[in-house]
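Example 9 (inverse folding). The structure is encoded as follows.
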């Protein structure tokens, strides 16, 4: 098996050699892997993990329920219930593995696709959908789950995470910050600035790049001339590439990186090498820019199938477990579907709330103007 990007415009030949759980190709870097696509456990000299059967089943459940929720959200958008949706299909292992590596006191800065991480942080899936339905600007309190609001601006959350991490360091807190972004966002200046400040101030932040091979319609090869994780070297902190479809490897590497950050050793970059199985968002048509063979190849590396194969082969899960989980998935989908359709329209005047902590004369003036404008519709209806 090769770990090279299947998003390349032209196929390249490569050979693979297994060495202590790492994969090497003739032109690609080593890859941290603990669970092969065939569901086989392998060891790694730097990153070890010894999960219990309960922990393995719990991670499988997390991935299955996250995928089911994600699929339901995509369907709701197609039915006109959501304005847009960014699917995580294929990236469940990267998100659940890294999300389960966090402690309660750690803080997360997501993009707009980290539905699995939100699940790990205890954010109700229904709350994720309010923004995409257009009824709120983020339906959860970031401080209650240490999970920041979704960030639509590409790459800016890396700066937010770095600033927050600098504050954590000044406070002397025993915590770390985890910042998510994609391969496309790695080309943004905000990410470069975040790397600079994180390195100079030795901030306790871990940058987690989900390299899903495509920045909308541009392949990774158009984003960088070196593997993304190697960019960390230029800023003075370590980087590592992990098999993003291996939930165990993602968990082990992220745990180690977060602990490194907490103990004052500074930032680290993790590149989770994975694949976006679906569209960039529901407004995108991936068939216009990538081959069907790509998806077919990556389907053989499916993160959920990989762990299920391992659980079954090791006798750690039976038919009753999978059947019960299927019922739970159906119940989650129904709850999400019913809750979205029952979401009330927002209060029109809420637009002006929570802008300034102590209020502002201009906002007050704009609120009054908008209230008068809204009232004019009622007056017109009365006149008719």
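The amino acid assigned to each position is listed next.
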């Amino acid at each position: 098996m090769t770990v090279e990007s299947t998003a390349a415009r032209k196929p390249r030949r490569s050979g693979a050699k297994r060495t202590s759980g790492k994969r090497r190709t003739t032109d690609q870097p080593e890859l941290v892997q603990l669970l092969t696509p065939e569901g086989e456990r392998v060891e790694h000299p730097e990153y070890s993990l010894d999960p219990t059967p309960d922990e393995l089943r719990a991670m499988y459940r997390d991935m299955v329920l996250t995928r089911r929720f994600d699929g339901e959200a995509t369907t709701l958008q197609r039915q006109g219930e959501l304005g847009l949706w960014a699917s995580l299909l294929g990236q469940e292992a990267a998100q659940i593995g890294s999300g389960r590596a966090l402690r309660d006191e750690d803080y997360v800065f997501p993009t707009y696709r980290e539905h699995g991480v939100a699940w790990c942080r205890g954010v109700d899936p229904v709350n994720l959908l309010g923004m995409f339905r257009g009824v709120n600007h983020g339906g959860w309190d970031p401080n209650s789950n240490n999970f920041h609001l979704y960030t639509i601006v590409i790459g800016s959350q890396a700066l937010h995470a770095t600033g927050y991490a600098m504050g954590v360091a000044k406070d002397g807190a025993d915590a770390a910050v985890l910042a998510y972004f994609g391969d496309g966002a790695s080309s943004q200046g905000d990410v470069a600035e975040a790397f600079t400040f994180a390195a100079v101030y030795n901030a306790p932040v871990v940058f987690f790049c989900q390299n899903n091979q495509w920045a909308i319609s541009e392949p990774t090869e158009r984003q960088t001339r070196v593997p993304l994780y190697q960019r960390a070297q230029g800023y003075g902190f370590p980087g590592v590439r992990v098999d993003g479809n291996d939930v165990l490897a993602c968990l082990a590497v992220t745990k180690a990186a977060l602990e490194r950050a907490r103990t004052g050793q500074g930032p680290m970059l993790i590149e989770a090498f994975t694949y976006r199985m679906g569209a960039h968002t529901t407004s995108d048509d991936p068939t216009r820019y990538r081959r069907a063979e790509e998806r077919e190849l990556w389907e053989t590396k499916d993160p959920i199938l990989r762990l299920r194969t391992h659980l079954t082969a090791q006798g750690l899960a039976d038919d009753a477990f999978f059947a019960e989980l299927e019922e739970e998935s159906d119940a989650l989908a129904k709850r999400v579907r019913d809750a979205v359709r029952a979401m009330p329209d927002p209060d029109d005047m809420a637009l002006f709330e929570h802008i300034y902590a102590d209020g502002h004369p201009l906002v007050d003036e704009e609120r009054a103007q908008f209230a008068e404008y809204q009232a004019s519709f009622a007056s017109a209806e009365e006149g008719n």
